[in-house]
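Action item from last week, closing it out:
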Amino acid sequence: MSSKKLLAVVLVGALGVAACGANDQKPSGDAAAKPDKGGTLRVLSESRTLNFDPAKSQSLAITTLGLVHRRLTGWQNAVGQPAKVVPDLGDTGKTTDGGKTWTFVLQDGLKFSDGTPITSADVKWGVERSFAPAFGGGLGYHKDLLGGADYKGPFEGKELDSIETPDARTITFKLTRPYGDWPWIASTPAFAPVPKGKGAEADYQEHAIASGPYQIATYSKGVEVKLSRNPNWDGSKDQVRAGLPDEVVFQLGQDASVVSQRLAADSGDDKFAFGASFASPAQLAQLQANASAKSRVVTSKSGAVAYLALNTQKAPLNNVKVRQAFQYAVNKSAYQIASAGTAALAGDAATTLITQGIEGREQFDLYQSKPEGDPEKAKALLAEAGFPNGVEGLSLVLNKSNNQTEKAEAIQAALARANIKVDIRSLEADAFETETNLSENPTYDLTLSSWQPDFPSANANIQPLFATSEIGKGGYNISRYSNPEVDKLIEEAQSTVDATEAGKKWAAIDRRILEDSPVVPLIYTRNSFIHGSKVGNFFIADFPAYPNYLQVGISK
């Protein structure tokens, strides 16, 4: 599978970290009672745009897009429980041929905001629309699996033969190969319905026809988006969304540091608001002096895995012994300090590729490395590899944003103690992507990145980062790791329908990849968010490390 346009928000460089005591998960804020139905919820966002076009969106199933659009399947998540795929527009799908063909049945009586029925043809149209070049940019896990390499969308009058709609409530997907996670794929944005024949205009995102509890009332670019109730949404047919507020207002272009100050002050409309961006370490330190604000900070147990990627296609990093030396040379404790001031605030030291909160994940430490590193062990491995005097002249490229420089300097200092000499090269965001994700012949040796999967499966941890198909051309295999054995194991695990059996296979692949050491896992980051005192049911479940927008309400 070739997922070239993955969820931008998963590449979190910012570490929204825990304030002391903030890890205690509180379903509601401060002294707020259980949220009521009604009121106006306000979301304060740094972004200057909101994309309500499901074909272009990379929004998680529990965040912004889900307020306006339902999907074929949905996520149910709660504190202390693994996320589960659940029915949304349809059931969770059935396969009778080992995962190659999947059939879903839609609920009866579903309507769009304009009152027209939602049919299987509308879901098919929505998926087909995501193949049109003009509507690219969304998650693409489904495209190769539906055999769409040459398909350019429905606006030229052609249908995708791999999707069948024998009646108004039934939709069948015929995949190119067995794929056990297809019910999860059906929860991604492209599986939101778009009325058949509509959505050809470039600004569809500003007036998209809704299937969720809210419709777009006003869209002021760069300023504000206001959502009002969808009169044709039936809450009894939706187990994913609470639909509590009467209105949801997104205030755009907000400065994150100012947002934290406003929410800490908790006055006026800000009592009914929350920040969409992570609270930074500096902001969290300031909040410690404000007991009320501190109690309204909610922090994830875990989040993305931050890692050091080693370009396996360049000498001397094409030598596995050299790469394994990095597992001992890196000082994860120093990286934690550089990230957030203390190890406790930054997040746990990471030893696996599969992130915490993913069902079936196995905790292990293949290298039994010390958090502070073991430079002598690293030197010994380098000597075995033919580098008794170490290596020098390596280039570590990084994105300038989100205190990456401080983190890179911590890595640089630790490597130097193991006789690995590294130069740091800082790039702007676009140049960084060009160098790491897009370049066919990159010059970097090392780079820092982080990853949170797009759906709650180890598949979404492993395949995008380590499959050969994801090297270059916008893919996120920035270690340029290519192992035919691992590619085969990935495909076998993807083809396994039974979740328990698949989990065991993914855990084994996690170990197998780390034997080759294409990356050094650093920490499992934490995300913190602050909300006003009248915001209730504001929680972060075990996955993903973001609040569930669909359950939040206002306490009167």
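Closing note: The chain has 16 helices and 19 strands.
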